[in-house]
Amino acid sequence: MGRMMPWGPxxxxxxxxxxxxxLHFAAQDVTGMLRDIASSITLHPGDGVLTWTREGEEPxxxxxxxxxxxxxxxxxxxxxxxxxxxxxxxxxxx
Length: 94
What we know:
Layout: E1 16-17, E2 23-24, H1 27-43, E3 51-52, E4 60-61, H2 64-89
Antiparallel strand pairs: 1-2, 3-4
Helix pairs in contact: 1-2
């Protein structure tokens, strides 16, 4: 499961609506989003300084240790969701 998002960073994740009106995201899109965020945190250390930049604003310096910890937490959460999804997918439907 855990795939990268099929859309760019400026696009949004597709949202669906159930017949009962509840809104939902595809689970694989959520795990992909978590992995993409973690990857972007660890793969873009411009000039040895980790930064976060909102479009049109100045970059904000990030603490490297905290940032790596957040990336690990996001990846671990995606891994746990994938395990649950694999388990559910292997069970017979309703």
